[in-house]
Amino acid sequence: MILRSLASLGIGAAVVDTQLEDKPIYAGDLLKGEVCIQGGEIEQLIDDIYFYLMVEITKNDKKKPYMLKKIHLSEGFTIQRRMTKKIPFEVRIPLETPMSTGSYRVFVKTGLDIKKAIDPQDVDDIDVVPPALIQKLLKEVENGGFILYKISNQYDQSVKPHPFFQMFQFKPTGKNHGLVDELGVIFSLSDREMHMDIEIVRAGSVLHTDFYWSFEDIGQPLLMNREQRYEDPILKLQEILNTNQFKR
Question: In terms of pTM, does the model score above 0.85?
């Protein structure tokens, strides 16, 4: 009875440890690993194992965790005293998962649901890198005379499917130095389409250029500021970045 009372407080109870494959993962790929449950000093009924994919965002000038996805990993079972149980898993990371940075973490939280007891939990950071297309577009911005200096996740309830966006902020170098104060890029990527918003800040004014194109129909035109253009999005971005439109 004393051991059970202590276990309900987390003393001598089962513990959970999630072990992830130690490598960067692309948004949209599979996250692989295993959940290791180590039994405590008494047997306990595990009602559920939950797995949350979490990201950090800024809301009202404060950094807060946001649940991007909840995954059910296992049905209920009994963990015996000092028993070890390992549950391998493969979880698809959503394509809209933001890039992880030193300032904005992406992490998984694993927990055991045990009735009338403190639920054991484990938190593990994951290294998420953008899909190849976003990396290519960011490289084009750098090649156009800009250097990336800040990445932030900002709350915005109007954004779907999750109420935040990740902004990549650049400072001008070389030919654009003194002509542009800052350039920001926001991506919204799904398996069917790409939406890219470019924000150019100059002398207190802001110029927006909006790109949208579909992957499903190769013949569908690029929409740029809602105007149809039968042009390659990458080439059009290069043209914008390499013309003299930044000059006052």
Answer: no
